Amino acid sequence: MDSGICYIKPEYLVTEADGGSAAANTENSENNKRKREDGEEVQAGGKKKWDKKERKRGQNKNRPVFKDERYSHLCHSLIDGTGGEACSLDNCRYVHDLDAFLAAKGEDLGLECYVYTTKGYCARGVSCRFAKAHTNEQGRNLKREDYDDKAPPTTCNGVSSELQVRLRKHDYDFSRSKELIRMAEKLRDARKLKEKQEKENNQSEGTVTPPAGEKQPSDTAEMLDAEQHTDSKSKPTATGCAIDDSAIGRDADQKPAVDFREKLVLSPLTTLGNLPFRRICKEFGADITCGEMACAQPLLKGMGQEWALTKRHQSEDVFGVQLCGNNPNMINQAAQVIHETAQVDFIDLNIGCPIDLIYQQGGGSALMRRTNILELTVRSCAALSDRLPFTVKMRTGIYADKSVAHELLPLVEEWGASAVTLHGRSREQRYTKHANWAYIEECAAKAKRMPVIGNGDILSYEDYIERRTLAPHVSSVMIGRGALIKPWIFQEIKEKQAWSPSSGQRYEMLQKFCNYGLEHWGSDTKGVETTRRFLLEWQSFLYRYIPEALQTAPPQKINARPQKYRGRDEMETLMSSGNAADWVKLSESLLGRVPESFTFVPKHKANAF
Ligand SMILES: Cc1cc2nc3c(=O)[nH]c(=O)nc-3n(C[C@H](O)[C@H](O)[C@H](O)COP(=O)(O)O)c2cc1C
């Protein structure tokens, strides 16, 4: 048996005799074309061979970029229909011809507006694609009697225009951040000096020096002594960070605000890990959620799109923002503004990001080899506040044959990190081979008190148990693709058994996602199309779920490709299709017809088997 294949029961197999007529899980010409561009060749006999040199990984860079400028926006003065206060702006760029706008808006997509039903008022008013549900005969947008306009919003964070102006005018007070960096520099220099002196002493005494980066058990305490000697006011804190407590207002006795042990953590997932998706995962039992990676520089420029990545839904009771950057000053300043203006429970630093552009600029996984820069970043960010844990997410290293996480992880703990997540693959590996949980265990065992969160390849309760048994020092697990393929994985782990939803139940989940999407991105045409894009991105992972009843030997393994199969009903077959045209069809049943000349190519190549 080939472990790379998920075997399907004979009655569900699609054979040559079927002529491939079923919409079974075949991939479309768009995907095949993409694969050819990626260097995947199809040999005679259907076997695939990979040309490693040619193959490009990561994101689909040549995909058409989705621009939403083409949707006209109605002026806010008309959003509730005619009869309100006229627009007072001379140069308002929005549409003021209500009749023309309504004529061009397109058909309503349904009789019920989720936003109106749940809140009692739809702020998209007459521009909503479900407007008939909340407009009267005169075309006025209605407010239900029980609507509470003082009710707190269900989401928070993002950037206010006032903050945007302060950031753009360099008017934000970063003196605290500058002080933290200065102190982190002092500690780093003291550590380096001490290391140098030790090396010289060892050489003069003829003792053997440990290999670079390999630390002796007593080093941490000695290093802290050295730091205290350099700055007599400094003292180690509960998290092991030795930055001057009085200067940063740290109460050394306070416990970190988040307990990272025995938790199911949803991975930060660019594009896919959006707020509506995270709501679904919360409902299925995810304990900790994290926003999509946000870059420090655009945050400091006050860019709305980047700040949107910090948004949090009220159901996300333990929520973090993930930062990416190549410069300690910028990362720390971004962390400071987030800490001071947003509601977050922790800040995470991504030092595992493999994306070329970020890596070439010295950010993401490049920070795994820029130890001095990393030290400044971790020390300064961990010292921002005792109530704001600072965590680090890393890979095994940059190269497959040169793991460094076992050296880095104890250092990161010493510098003050509250937890580390380790994805058991190198940058070079991306998603090939299996995540190395034996190595994750080796690293986790090196942490003194800091929880280590293991990450990689968990798709079932069995996977979870297997990995936790293999890695007993791991405190919690993080799940990424497993949650994208079957978001109910959190429930399965908590209930210790598989759940095999019917196609109807899976469809209801998609409906829910669309409702949450319309609430988040808006129920007007622009919001509908944004929701569709994110739904399609998600479907590019969801189609990989293989219902247990169809497999000869469940549970499904994350890298196993199924034999060609059809589902137990038409919807199950449609949902298993790897053909982007079928994903669009599915989206049309939920969100209406796609606009003319619509195209879709998934953003992430990690969706492929
Ligand atoms: C679509 C996608 C987007 C991702 N985006 C991020 C990200 O923004 N930040 C991050 O640290 N990791 C990101 N990752 C990596 C995951 O968080 C996780 O480390 C990786 O997928 C391995 O875990 P898994 O096997 O459970 O998927 C992303 C992964 C995928 C598939």
UniProtKB/TrEMBL annotation:
<keyword id="KW-0560">Oxidoreductase</keyword>
<keyword id="KW-0520">NAD</keyword>
<keyword id="KW-0862">Zinc</keyword>
<dbReference type="GO" id="GO:0050660">
    <property type="term" value="F:flavin adenine dinucleotide binding"/>
</dbReference>
<feature type="compositionally biased region" description="Basic and acidic residues">
    <location>
        <begin position="192"/>
        <end position="202"/>
    </location>
</feature>
<dbReference type="InterPro" id="IPR018517">
    <property type="entry name" value="tRNA_hU_synthase_CS"/>
</dbReference>
<keyword id="KW-0677">Repeat</keyword>
<dbReference type="Pfam" id="PF01207">
    <property type="entry name" value="Dus"/>
</dbReference>
<keyword id="KW-0507">mRNA processing</keyword>
<feature type="compositionally biased region" description="Basic residues">
    <location>
        <begin position="46"/>
        <end position="60"/>
    </location>
</feature>
<keyword id="KW-0285">Flavoprotein</keyword>
<dbReference type="GO" id="GO:0006397">
    <property type="term" value="P:mRNA processing"/>
</dbReference>
<feature type="domain" description="C3H1-type">
    <location>
        <begin position="112"/>
        <end position="137"/>
    </location>
</feature>
<dbReference type="InterPro" id="IPR013785">
    <property type="entry name" value="Aldolase_TIM"/>
</dbReference>
<dbReference type="GO" id="GO:0106414">
    <property type="term" value="F:mRNA dihydrouridine synthase activity"/>
</dbReference>
<dbReference type="GO" id="GO:0003723">
    <property type="term" value="F:RNA binding"/>
</dbReference>
<dbReference type="GO" id="GO:0102265">
    <property type="term" value="F:tRNA-dihydrouridine47 synthase activity"/>
</dbReference>
<keyword id="KW-0288">FMN</keyword>
<comment type="similarity">
    <text>Belongs to the dus family. Dus3 subfamily.</text>
</comment>
<keyword id="KW-0819">tRNA processing</keyword>
<keyword id="KW-0521">NADP</keyword>
<feature type="region of interest" description="Disordered">
    <location>
        <begin position="18"/>
        <end position="63"/>
    </location>
</feature>
<protein>
    <recommendedName>
        <fullName>tRNA-dihydrouridine(47) synthase [NAD(P)(+)]</fullName>
        <ecNumber>1.3.1.-</ecNumber>
    </recommendedName>
</protein>
<feature type="region of interest" description="Disordered">
    <location>
        <begin position="192"/>
        <end position="248"/>
    </location>
</feature>
<dbReference type="GO" id="GO:0008270">
    <property type="term" value="F:zinc ion binding"/>
</dbReference>
<dbReference type="InterPro" id="IPR000571">
    <property type="entry name" value="Znf_CCCH"/>
</dbReference>
<keyword id="KW-0479">Metal-binding</keyword>
<dbReference type="InterPro" id="IPR035587">
    <property type="entry name" value="DUS-like_FMN-bd"/>
</dbReference>
<feature type="zinc finger region" description="C3H1-type">
    <location>
        <begin position="112"/>
        <end position="137"/>
    </location>
</feature>
<comment type="function">
    <text>Catalyzes the synthesis of dihydrouridine, a modified base, in various RNAs, such as tRNAs, mRNAs and some long non-coding RNAs (lncRNAs). Mainly modifies the uridine in position 47 (U47) in the D-loop of most cytoplasmic tRNAs. Also able to mediate the formation of dihydrouridine in some mRNAs, thereby regulating their translation.</text>
</comment>
<keyword id="KW-0863">Zinc-finger</keyword>
